[in-house]
What does this fold into?
Amino acid sequence: MINLLSNALKFTGKGGEIEVRVAKTETVIKDKEEELSKLYLNEEERNQIVEDPRAKLEKFTIQVADNGAGISEEGLKQLFTDYSSL
It folds into this structure.
């Protein structure tokens, strides 16, 4: 998230616009353990959430839009590749 915002600032010129939107996504979570496996939690943190019946998992959608330089077609293919720089 920090890289996303940093790049929006870096590649949007003076007078440009950056828009950030955050929305709670309505979702039904069928398998709490499976969803938790996708998060960066250690085993102890994960177990605490699974065992607590009050614990809820909520999903959010984060969108960042700007009128900067954009990303090339080739860059889009690498966008979510670990340790790559476009």
